[in-house]
């Protein structure tokens, strides 16, 4: 039996091209505004779309509320990571980090406040920036990516203060250990490295792939995602998703998930993870799978929890990945609806 | 008796009676005038009252005497007789008096009557006079009113206003001194002036009439002259035919065409005129001709008498057949359908010649009852084309012009009013008849100047030249591009079926020199089969897989890796790119839903197609995309990270020069080829 084709409008060249673009769009990063009412999403074409969460979640929401309020071309290459301070939205992708004012961002023709490029060693190819990390106590920003280093940038002056070297392959993800303060970085080389910010030295190294419980050689050794909660760390990627005790550098729980995970986060007493496969997985700390909630994209790359105190009605989990859609979960049990580019 | 005799002798007898009445004595006075006795005169002299007394006295005396007589007679005696005689004589006298009185009374009566009669007569006469006079008075009054009401004709004439009159009229007519005071004279003068003017104008009118006559005559003469010119010109044209042929200017041929064109129905005529104009002005490769029978076209407008004769014949025939066999309802319906779908006997043929000498033959028909135009297409090339199996639909007359403009599939009638006509004869859709009748594309209607507004069906849609002219150039260009792209595809398919991806030299720079993956299969698949494939769901949901598209399956192989590519070819190729969906079978099945790199490969071919277009008119798009697919498969296989747990060397050693193997959170492989350095990098 033939499947019904939804579109009756004849597609000309422009419409076909737009449809193809949407089919092949990947949303790499998300960030919530300081007021909690807006969500920014960055895609592989370098565009950033701002969605109004409050409008989409309100009772009079229509189809148009699920479309972006504004979409603009932010970078030439993909927007791999974003972060929000209390006034700025920082986005980074192909080698540069740009800052945008949240107050101005909804107006058309918004221009970036500033842009910075960390000092790279190689000039043949501009390395990408895969992760941004804000260190609020020191008002600093840490970038890491293709050139295997972690760069610290002072947000006040905009200068790059330090470069932390140690990874042998490019860095995927960063996490902040508040107390020390220490930064954890996971990379393509399969190692999770801890760095002390004040002394700018590598304090600890965990080579995940060398541990038999979690290594999965057929997937590779790369660490795609990191999250930390004072003494504990969870990481995943090529190797299985594992919970580690940091001081002893031992894996305590291995989560039985075959697909490589691309994003992981602690939430209340659960661990949420997402990656290849449609679902957002909820794990108990003991290693049991509490729930698997399917989303609309075939693979997920980023999860974002809107915990801004200013907007409790917009407290949602949003997931995005290999499609032009951002899934919104109002309660962790099911997907409420999807925003779309 | 005695009274009678006295009456007779009355006028002549003079009587002198010893009558007791004094009146009688008076009468002798009246005798003096004449010697006759007139009792009438006597009447006037006597007093009727005294006469009445006399009468009463006489009657008394008579009664007394009678009584005495009676007494005497009853007494008897001798002296009685004398007494009686005496008394008798007295009574006789009294009788005589009574008679006279009676006569007088009669005379008085008569006189009275005569007088009354006279008076009456007088009164009557006066009365008549009065009547006459009154009548006359009334008559006169009426006449007066009539006179007063009389509207003279002169008041109906609009006279010029007073000021104008005094300005314009010559003084001998206006006579200002006289007329100013006297309105009667003034009006007279104005009437005079009016008359003057009218006379003048009548003169002018006569003059103009005569002028007109003269000019009409001149025109007649000139017309005759011109009509005599026509046969002379014809003879000149005939004489010039050989010269025309010698100089390659076939005016006569064009003229004959125009003659035939006069019998075309309006939309075909619009198309003919606009196409010829366009051909002459812009495109020398376009030739227009009219085909079909002019006599039949003329017969369509024949007067009914002739057709009635035919009808009666055919009626007779029909009756015969009905006696033999009743035509079934289906046959009758069939006839009605055929009648509804009848074509006009004339058709316009357009031949579009392309640069490589291939020709697109378009024949345009007009369906009279439906008021739409249809077209049949045929492509001929200079050399015989060997059609590869997969290219069956490319140049087929049914689908070569499909979707020339997006969505214009030509399977439905563009005239909304036709639906009602179809319902009457049980035609569901025109789709069943398009093979026979030709396709009613929307651009065909536009070229014929027919515009059918979508909202409500109009009663009569008439052919409009401006609509046709505005669409002519674009449509012709699109048609040429379509034919050329289809022919290019035709050639390419022939090569693809043999496993060779034909990359032209000017597109070679897009690809590295060494490409190891090979195309092993290229076949067409049906629309339903495409929809059933498990890795094409996204394309179907996005509405990019219509039934007007063409579908193909390509298979690229290298070693143990097999890459299936399902291709959607839009009829609008190459402005609308073909869309690829991939499924790789190597160490498991990988599609875009479970492998980001396969998704990236699809993106390289689908989204970044503009780099692969090649030089205009970009017929190389499909082959370039296929070649790129091979290159991508090479990169994918060679950059696959080595699994340490498995023993043995990599199946595909890395030969491509890459700066980095993985990049970004999704660990993309380096699919972008950089020319001329020859290395691969990430987008």
Automatic annotation (TrEMBL), chain A:
GO terms for cellular component: nuclear speck; THO complex; transcription export complex. Keywords: Apoptosis, Developmental protein, mRNA processing, mRNA splicing, mRNA transport, Nucleus, Phosphoprotein, Repeat, RNA-binding, Transport, WD repeat. It is found in: Nucleus speckle. Belongs to the WD repeat THOC6 family. Component of the THO subcomplex, which is composed of THOC1, THOC2, THOC3, THOC5, THOC6 and THOC7. The THO subcomplex interacts with DDX39B to form the THO-DDX39B complex which multimerizes into a 28-subunit tetrameric assembly. Component of the transcription/export (TREX) complex at least composed of ALYREF/THOC4, DDX39B, SARNP/CIP29, CHTOP and the THO subcomplex; in the complex interacts with THOC5; together with THOC5 and THOC7, plays a key structural role in the oligomerization of the THO-DDX39B complex. TREX seems to have a dynamic structure involving ATP-dependent remodeling. Component of the THO subcomplex of the TREX complex which is thought to couple mRNA transcription, processing and nuclear export, and which specifically associates with spliced mRNA and not with unspliced pre-mRNA. Plays a key structural role in the oligomerization of the THO-DDX39B complex. This is WD repeat-containing protein 58. It comes from Suricata suricatta (Meerkat).
TrEMBL record, chain B:
InterPro entries: THO_Thoc5. GO terms for cellular component: THO complex part of transcription export complex. Its main location: nucleus. Residues 1-42, 302-336 are annotated as: Disordered. The keyword Transcription does not apply. Residues 22-42 have a biased composition (Basic and acidic residues). It holds the Pfam family FmiP_Thoc5. GO terms for molecular function: mRNA binding. It is found in: Nucleus. Residues 306-319 have a biased composition (Acidic residues). The keyword Hydrolase does not apply. One of its GO terms (biological process) is mRNA export from nucleus. Keywords: Nucleus. Belongs to the THOC5 family. This is THO complex 5. It comes from Suricata suricatta (Meerkat).
């Amino acid at each position: 039996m033939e499947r019904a084709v939804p579109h009756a409008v004849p597609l000309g060249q422009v419409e076909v091209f737009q449809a193809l673009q949407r089919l092949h769009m990947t949303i790499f990063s998300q960030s919530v505004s300081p007021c909690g009412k807006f969500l920014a999403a960055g895609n592989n074409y370098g565009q950033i779309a701002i969605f109004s969460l409050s409008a989409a979640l309100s009772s009079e929401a229509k189809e148009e509320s699920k479309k972006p309020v504004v979409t603009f071309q932010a970078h030439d290459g993909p927007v791999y990571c974003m972060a929000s301070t209390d006034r700025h939205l920082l986005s980074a992708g192909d080698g540069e980090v740009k800052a945008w004012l949240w107050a101005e961002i909804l107006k058309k023709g918004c221009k970036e406040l500033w842009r910075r490029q960390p000092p790279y060693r190689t000039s043949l190819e501009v390395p990408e920036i895969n992760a941004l990390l804000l260190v609020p106590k020191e008002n600093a920003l840490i970038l890491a990516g293709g050139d295997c280093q972690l760069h610290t940038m002072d947000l006040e002056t905009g200068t790059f203060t330090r470069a932390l070297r140690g990874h042998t392959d490019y860095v995927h993800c960063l996490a902040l250990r508040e107390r020390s303060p220490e930064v954890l970085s996971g990379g393509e080389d399969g190692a999770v490295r801890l760095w002390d910010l004040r002394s700018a030295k590598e304090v600890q190294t965990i080579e995940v792939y060398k541990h038999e419980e979690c290594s999965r050689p057929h997937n590779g050794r790369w660490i795609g995602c990191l999250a930390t909660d004072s003494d504990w760390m969870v990481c995943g990627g090529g190797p299985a998703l594992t919970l580690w005790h940091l001081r002893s550098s031992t894996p305590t729980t291995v989560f039985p998930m075959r697909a490589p995970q691309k994003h992981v986060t602690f939430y209340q007493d659960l661990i949420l993870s997402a990656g290849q496969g449609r679902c957002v997985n909820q794990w108990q700390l003991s290693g049991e799978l509490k729930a698997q909630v399917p989303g609309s994209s075939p693979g997920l790359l980023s999860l974002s929890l809107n915990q801004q105190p200013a907007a409790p009605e917009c407290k949602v989990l949003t997931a995005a990945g290999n499609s032009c859609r951002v899934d919104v979960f109002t309660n962790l049990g099911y997907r409420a609806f999807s925003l779309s580019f | 008796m005695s009274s009678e005799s006295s009456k007779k002798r009355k006028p002549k007898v003079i009587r002198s009676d010893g009558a007791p009445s004094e009146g009688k004595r008076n009468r002798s006075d009246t005798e003096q005038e004449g010697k006759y006795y007139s009792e009438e005169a006597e009447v006037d002299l006597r007093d009727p009252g005294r006469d009445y007394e006399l009468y009463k006295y006489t009657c008394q005396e008579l009664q007394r005497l009678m009584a005495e007589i009676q007494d005497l007679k009853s007494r008897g005696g001798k002296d009685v007789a004398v007494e009686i005689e005496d008394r008798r004589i007295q009574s006789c006298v009294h009788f005589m008096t009574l008679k006279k009185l009676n006569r007088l009374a009669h005379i008085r009566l008569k006189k009275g009557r005569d007088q009354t009669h006279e008076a009456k007569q007088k009164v009557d006469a006066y009365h008549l006079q009065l009547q006459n006079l009154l009548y006359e008075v009334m008559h006169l009054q009426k006449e007066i009113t009539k006179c007063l009401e009389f509207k003279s004709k002169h008041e109906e004439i609009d006279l010029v206003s007073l000021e104008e009159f005094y300005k314009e009229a010559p003084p001998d007519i206006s006579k200002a001194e006289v007329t100013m005071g006297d309105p009667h004279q003034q009006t007279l003068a104005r009437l005079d002036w009016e008359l003057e003017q009218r006379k003048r104008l009548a003169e002018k009118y006569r003059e103009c009439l005569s002028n007109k006559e003269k000019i009409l005559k001149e025109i007649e003469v000139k017309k005759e002259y011109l009509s005599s010119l026509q046969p002379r010109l014809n003879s000149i044209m005939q004489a010039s035919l050989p010269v025309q042929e010698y100089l390659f200017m076939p005016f006569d041929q064009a003229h004959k065409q125009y003659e035939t064109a006069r019998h075309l129905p309006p939309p075909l005529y619009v198309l003919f005129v606009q196409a010829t104009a366009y051909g002459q002005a812009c495109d020398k490769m376009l030739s227009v001709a009219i085909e079909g029978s002019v006599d039949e076209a003329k017969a369509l407008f024949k007067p009914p008498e002739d057709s009635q004769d035919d009808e009666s014949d055919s009626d007779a025939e029909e009756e015969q057949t009905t006696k033999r066999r009743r035509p079934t309802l289906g046959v009758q319906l069939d006839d009605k359908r055929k009648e509804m779908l009848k074509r006009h006997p004339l058709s316009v043929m357009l031949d579009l010649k392309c640069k490589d000498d291939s020709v697109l033959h378009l024949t345009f028909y007009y369906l009279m009852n439906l008021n739409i135009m249809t077209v049949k297409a045929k492509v001929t090339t200079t050399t015989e084309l060997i059609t590869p199996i997969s290219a069956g639909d490319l140049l087929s007359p049914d689908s070569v012009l499909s979707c020339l403009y997006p969505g214009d599939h030509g399977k439905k009638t563009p005239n909304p009013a036709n639906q009602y006509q179809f319902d009457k004869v049980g035609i569901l859709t025109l789709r069943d008849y398009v093979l026979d009748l030709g396709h009613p594309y929307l651009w065909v209607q536009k070229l014929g100047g027919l515009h059918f507004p979508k909202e409500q069906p109009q009663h009569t849609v008439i052919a409009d030249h401006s609509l046709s002219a505005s669409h002519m150039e674009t449509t012709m260009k699109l048609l040429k591009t379509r034919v050329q792209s289809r022919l290019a595809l035709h050639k390419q398919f022939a090569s693809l079926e043999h496993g060779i991806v034909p990359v032209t030299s000017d597109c070679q720079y897009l690809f590295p020199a060494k490409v190891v993956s090979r195309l092993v299969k290229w076949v067409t698949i049906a629309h339903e089969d495409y929809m059933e494939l498990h890795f094409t769901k996204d394309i179907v949901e996005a509405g990019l897989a219509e039934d007007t598209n063409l579908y193909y399956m390509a298979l690229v192989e290298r070693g143990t890796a097999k890459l299936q590519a399902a291709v959607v070819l839009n009829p609008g190729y190459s402005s609308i790119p073909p869309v690829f969906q991939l499924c790789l079978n190597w160490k498991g099945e990988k599609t875009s839903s479970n492998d980001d790199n396969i998704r990236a490969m699809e993106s390289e071919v689908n989204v970044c197609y503009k780099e692969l277009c090649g030089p205009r008119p970009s017929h190389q798009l499909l082959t370039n995309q296929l070649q790129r697919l091979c290159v991508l498969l090479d990169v994918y296989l060679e950059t696959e990270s080595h699994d340490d747990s498995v023993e043995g060397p990599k199946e595909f050693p890395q030969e491509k020069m890459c700066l980095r193997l993985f990049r970004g959170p999704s660990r993309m492989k380096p699919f972008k080829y950089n020319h001329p350095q020859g290395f691969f990098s990430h987008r």
